[in-house]
Design a protein that fits this description.
The chain is mostly beta strands. It is 1% helix and 52% strand.
Length: 443
């Protein structure tokens, strides 16, 4: 073949044994001889949208040697672009071009041809964009929201068939409950795409990469070399333009504890009132109770009970009568807060009863000894701090705390028929003073 022996664009050409100027004959490209093979190789089999990779075509002549330097190799692709599409071989018989992915996902079928090359391994497939998706991993932070709901960051990572991050891949998000701030996102260089979920009930968020159906429909272009049209090798069946993978994550909503407060019946003002507070942690998606506080509704500071497990008995003193709204609030370790309330009617506390019964002798004498039977009965929950008796003759005696009956005797110096007013005053533990009186006449 004469064209094999001459440089591609030699200044002279040989016709019928006569050398004439190159401007008088057609310039013929240098092509591989019949029986040659081309093997296509690349460093990757996955190219992200907008990404590039180098394609190497190795030309081998039938004798197993590299062809003459400058042998022309033409490249075609079914997807994306090749720059350049025609490349001359180097001394090792290699022709190198660059594949550039566009914005469409699919399988790029790349073919290299030169002269009489056999089909052989001159076809290469690259997975572009979501056609390369191998898996989608979905995570949530946090995975458990408070009982009244909240937000979680949902992150999907798209990985290609080799387990590497898949960049620039469109991701579609959907949720079974609540709402998401966007239904579409594109992965970054780490293959990550994130959205925000807002929900007050358990929600499962699914992230999908790629879509079913739709193969690459762009046929490989034919190559014209030296005025001869060489049809491309028939490409294999092109798979779907995009693979499809999806992953899901479930975000749960925690359950709040329950709190119940049981008041006493008509407690007395100033007396300790006993309340029963029962707290139960949720059995499903619940957490331990961290603190329980009680607001007594009487203007005093709320009381913290700390960690309450089961039931607790707590006492409070209402200083004045009235109707009070008591609120118990439980907080669990997850931050859930739940309250329950009750009303309590505080009534006045009865005063102690004070009775003085004198025993005056009927036989006149001077002085006269009079015996007093003293009975003090405080109401339930109240004690007597002190008692003082005034015998009516200018003499007073401190009796201290009295609860029940005591007998006291006092001697009177008097005139016949003289009367005396006796008074017993008691102070109870509520700070109240109660007085009982009697009058005696000594014969």
């Amino acid at each position: 073949m004469i064209s094999r022996l001459l440089p591609r664009f030699a200044g002279l050409c040989l016709v019928a044994g006569v050398t004439i100027s190159a401007f008088s004959c057609q310039k013929v490209p240098l092509l591989a001889p019949s029986g040659s093979t081309i093997s296509l190789t690349t460093a990757v089999n996955v190219v992200p949208l907008g990404g590039t990779t180098e394609i190497i075509a190795q030309v081998i002549e039938p004798a197993g040697t590299a062809p003459q330097r400058g042998t022309l190799v033409s490249f075609t692709t079914s997807l994306g672009t090749l720059q350049p599409t025609e490349v001359e071989t180097d001394t090792a018989g290699r022709a190198i071009t660059r594949f550039i992915a566009g914005n469409g996902s699919g399988t790029a079928t790349i073919t290299a041809l030169s002269g009489g090359v056999s089909v052989g391994q001159n076809t290469l497939r690259l997975l572009v964009g979501t056609a390369a998706v191998g898996s989608v991993r979905v995570t949530a932070n946090p995975t458990l929201l408070p009982a009244n709901g909240g937000t979680a960051t949902i992150t999907a990572q798209a990985l290609d068939v080799n387990g590497n991050p898949l960049a620039s891949a469109p991701v579609n998000f959907s949720t079974t409950a609540g709402s998401i701030d966007q239904t579409f996102a594109t992965t970054d260089q780490s293959g990550l795409a994130s959205i925000i979920l807002r929900t007050s009930t358990t929600a499962t968020v699914t992230a999908s990469v790629g879509a079913q159906g739709g193969g690459s429909t762009t046929p490989p272009t034919t190559t014209t070399t030296g005025g001869t049209t060489t049809p491309p090798a028939a490409p294999p069946t092109t798979p779907a333009a995009s693979g499809q993978q999806q992953g899901s994550v479930t975000v749960n909503v925690s359950s709040a504890p329950t709190v119940l407060i049981t008041p006493p019946t008509n407690p007395g003002a100033g007396l300790p009132a006993s309340f029963t507070i029962a707290v139960t942690a949720a059995t499903t998606n619940g957490s331990a109770v961290r603190d329980v506080t009680v607001n007594w509704g009487d203007g005093t500071q709320p009381q913290s009970l700390g960690v309450v497990t089961g039931s607790a008995t707590v006492f409070h003193i209402f200083s004045a009568e009235g109707i009070y709204r008591v609120v118990a609030t439980a907080t669990d370790t997850f931050g859930n807060v739940v309250s329950n309330s009750t009303t309590v009617s505080v009534i006045p506390v009865a005063l102690p009863t004070v009775n003085i019964t004198p025993n005056v002798p009927t036989t006149p004498s001077n002085p006269t000894n009079v015996t007093f039977n003293i009975q003090v009965t405080p109401p339930s929950g109240v004690n007597i701090r002190n008692a003082v008796i005034d015998y009516g003759d200018g003499i007073r005696e401190t009796l201290g705390g009295i609860n029940g009956t005591i007998i006291k005797q006092h001697q009177y110096t008097h005139t016949a028929g003289q009367s005396f007013n006796i008074a017993l005053t008691v102070e109870d533990t509520l700070g109240r003073f109660t007085t009982g009186t009697t009058t005696i006449i000594i014969p």
